[in-house]
Specification:
- It is an enzyme of class 4 (lyase).
- Keywords: cGMP biosynthesis, Nucleotide-binding.
- Pfam families: HNOB, HNOBA.
- This is guanylate cyclase.
- The chain has 403 residues and is of the alpha+beta class.
- The protein has four domains: 60 residues, no CATH class; 109 residues, H-NOX domain (Alpha-Beta Complex), CATH 3.90.1520.10; 142 residues, Beta-Lactamase (2-Layer Sandwich), CATH 3.30.450; 47 residues, no CATH class.
- It contains 20 helices and twelve strands.
- Strands 8-7-12-11-10-9 form a six-stranded antiparallel sheet. Strands 3-4-6-5 form a four-stranded antiparallel sheet.
- Helix 4 packs across helix 8.
Length: 403
Amino acid sequence: SMYGLLCESLHDFIKESYGDDVWKLVRERADVRLHSFVTHQVYSESVIPRIAKAASGVTGTPYNELMNSWGVYFLGFVGKYGYDRILKVLGRHVRDFVNGLDNLHEYLRFSYPKVQPPTFFCQEESATGVTLHYRSKRKGYLHYAMGQLRQMGKQFYDTDIHVEVLSEQLVGDYSHVTMRLNFDNSAYRYIQKEDEEEQEILPITSDFFFEVFPFNIVFRQDMVVHNVGSGLATVFPDLDGKKINDAFLLARPLVEFTWNMIISHPNNLFEIMSKEPVKRERNLHNRVQNSDYENANRSADVDVELMAFQSIIGDDYKDGNSANAMESWGDGSRCLKLKGQMRYMPEWESIIFLGTPVMESLSAMFKTGLYINDLSMHDSSRDLVLAGTQQSEELKRALIQLV
């Protein structure tokens, strides 16, 4: 499935480029009954390929050329929704933008939580460009991505980017494309010069470092974990000594969960998910079911954890359906998701994962057995969880007013 933002942009591109009459013919040939699309609604994966192939046939434009033009158009289209502001600040130079491409969809995940983005990673950077690897579950979008890259260079950096496809192959369910982006990459020389300059190294103890990152995971080349942050250890106390790829699945980037793959993706955001659900203590659930809701609210020394649970399940508890509320939280939703950066530490001969939990709401936090004070103080984890809860309450009140 894919969001209507892409479908609507293709719809607008065809209408603006070829006219309403052509769009009607395309819609009929593609067997699409909808006249327009809703940006945040999810549609079938087959909609865009059907429309694009029909448009190519009706207009006589080669498919790849049409997809390339659509990619160019898309960057202007997203400006109507304010997403161009994200693109403008993604990087100071073209090299920064390209290196940050894989993280772009992460910034949109709050608006599009079910997005299934491609993976990008860079290699062989030089003063004349960079080699970009593009992996996606969707086939046929290469020239669309190429059009976006060219337009990005012109629109945001006043730079011409020549895209040369080096290879294109199917790897399992994924399309893997290697392309060379040729452009004036003078910023790379500046970065190299900075790296060559000597910098004062300030000593720091590993204990302090681990305290700052409570959800860190340190593992060696055999993938065996030999240090776990305090926050992560509270929910997975037996993780130390296990292989990280036995305990977690790699959700992003779309590569194998191996040492060599991790080493070769230093600029990518990594997202991992526990294979086993978090086993939260059952005594809390029993205490909630055996307590009186009204008395608990009036009690001066009420258990904070109990109050948190009651506030999360809300009316389900008041109606005596707390057991049903707990059952509705399937084990799959209690798997812990972490996202962060993988860094090789040569002094330790290990990789450290500097992660933070992915928490959309307080209820998600409760399911995984975590608390606000488990999260880092130096990043936005706490703010995002609380802000999401506040937005949910505001939306709820708005819906009540409409009714």
